[in-house]
């Protein structure tokens, strides 16, 4: 379900990350190579990026498939950024939320994306949702499993958790409440990226000291792509990548 990527490095056009690569996210919208669940990611897409000197990212999101948006290639050609999060969506279930359900979700300096599905949604996360403040539930961007997973992570961020801890604790909470869920998630604040491999593929490409890409699957044939083991938390900056195993929750 879905494909996504995050990039940290020198400013480059969005086109070089998303549209230009022969196996890029643009092509993954209809022909992903490593996707285990679903075949076409045509239920929406989105891109979030940071401008130099502004900690709050901009977003461009649409309801339909990326390839059907005639405006996006032009936008991608001229917009440049050194910190990007982008996603193409294959919806878990039909819904009427439109582009509000397309990642990246955002709040303050953070961008978030979920590649996967919460098993037993929505009843499986009733207990988790009950632990959120009413304001968090009333301001959900969409009525989807991904939006609620984001709300759980955001609550932790707002109470002071650092990126990796917020993401790991959220994934373990959801995995305990809904065993068998697929919870590959991406989170960035524009200076660091955290991600989890939990039930689907995750890769990274590092050019030490210059750039790091984290993605559901490689977008080119570069032999330096590294696959992240399942049940792993990834923490990356422009200069390094750290992998930490995650333990399956016990009953």
TrEMBL record:
InterPro entries: EgtC, EgtC-like, EgtC_Actinobacteria, Gamma-glu_amide_hydrolase, Ntn_hydrolases_N. It comes from the Bacteria. Its EC number is 3.5.1.118. It catalyses: gamma-L-glutamyl-hercynylcysteine S-oxide + H2O = S-(hercyn-2-yl)-L-cysteine S-oxide + L-glutamate. Pfam families: GATase_4. Pathway: Amino-acid biosynthesis; ergothioneine biosynthesis. SUPFAM superfamilies: N-terminal nucleophile aminohydrolases (Ntn hydrolases). GO terms for molecular function: hydrolase activity, acting on carbon-nitrogen (but not peptide) bonds, in linear amides. Catalyzes the hydrolysis of the gamma-glutamyl amide bond of hercynyl-gamma-L-glutamyl-L-cysteine sulfoxide to produce hercynylcysteine sulfoxide, a step in the biosynthesis pathway of ergothioneine. This is Gamma-glutamyl-hercynylcysteine sulfoxide hydrolase. It comes from Streptomyces finlayi.
């Amino acid at each position: 379900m879905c494909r996504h990527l995050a990039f940290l490095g020198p400013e480059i056009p969005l086109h070089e990350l998303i549209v230009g690569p022969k196996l890029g996210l643009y092509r993954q919208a209809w022909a992903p190579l490593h996707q285990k669940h679903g075949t076409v990611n045509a239920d929406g897409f989105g891109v979030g990026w940071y401008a130099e000197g502004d900690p709050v990212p901009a977003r461009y999101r649409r309801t339909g498939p990326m390839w059907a948006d005639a405006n996006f290639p032009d936008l991608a050609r001229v917009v440049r950024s050194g910190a990007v999060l982008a996603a193409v969506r294959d919806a878990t279930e039909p819904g009427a939320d439109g582009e509000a359900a397309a990642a990246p979700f955002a709040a303050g300096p953070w961008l978030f994306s979920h590649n996967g599905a919460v098993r037993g949604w929505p009843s499986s996360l009733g207990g988790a949702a009950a632990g959120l403040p009413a304001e968090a539930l009333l301001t959900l961007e969409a009525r989807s499993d991904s939006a609620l997973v984001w709300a759980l992570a955001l609550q932790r961020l707002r109470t002071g958790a650092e990126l990796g801890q917020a993401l790991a604790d959220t994934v373990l909470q959801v995995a305990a409440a809904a065993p068998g869920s697929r919870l590959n998630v991406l989170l960035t604040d524009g200076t660091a990226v955290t991600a989890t491999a939990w039930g689907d593929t995750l890769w990274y490409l590092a050019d030490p000291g210059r750039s790091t890409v984290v993605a559901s699957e490689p977008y080119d044939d570069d032999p330096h792509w590294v696959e992240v083991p399942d049940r792993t938390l990834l923490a990356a900056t422009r200069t390094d990548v750290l992998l930490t195993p995650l333990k399956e929750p016990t009953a």
